[in-house]
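fyi for ur records
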Amino acid sequence: MAVPTRGVSNYLQSLVYRAVIGTAMSLPYSRRVPFTGWAVGQMAGPAGWRRRIRDNLTLVYPELSEREIRGLVQKVPENVGRTLIEIWSGQEFRERARDFPFTGGGVAELEKAKVENRPAIVITGHFGNYDAVRAALIERGYRIGGLYIPMANGYFNDRYVKAISGIGTPVFERSRSGKGQKEMVRFLKSGGFVGLIADHFMGHGVPIEFLGHPAKTALNPAKMALKYDALLVPVYGLRLDDGLSFEIIVDNPIPHGEPVEMTRAANASLETLVRKHPEQWFWIHRRWKLSHGG
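which gave:
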């Protein structure tokens, strides 16, 4: 896992981020979000994202034309940028989240878990805006915390933690010491909901197919659901056509069973949305290190 580091290069990099975010935050919300999407899109080349997106798309969709690839190479960083500034917008974003509609077969089960004070693991991915899920649930009265992986840049990580905390707390740091994970488990056992982003490449994970290729995936969400009799339910924030609003899609809860099978079902749930809306998934990640030889 990434350990936040500091130093001259990280500090200078953080100044660029601060300049973009500072400029964006001075704008009205309806202009702020598209502006940051555009700005991050411009930064995608120097950051190495364009090449990584292209490599991932070529692996998963070898049939795509060059025009289609170029379109996604442009759209994916824009969605990342929009997500970033929405998270930084804190209370403004939460206020908008009050009106996000909830759809899908798992809505009733999610509400039932809240009423019965049953713990639940809300599993999502780097799709649309993953924190739209947490913001919308908080606004509906759900008691939900989130586990996050620290950013490599320590200066940026400080501000990121402050930003996600501005949407809601508690947030738990995934660390080598395990402190944050232990706090998360205590919260879960108390009947809380925990939000997990489950589409990272995890070195300790199990190779499970995602979009047609093996990707090392952690079994921990499934194992926790079994151990603490928690609901395991995939939930996503789908960005709508206006670029500012979201639909919160609550998939059917994953039945308890073998952890590998539960995790395979979670991967399949996310895969369905990614195939429908490829521009909304964060193709910037090294998800398939096994296939790329990394």
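Residues 66-88 form the longest helix (23 residues). thats all i got for now
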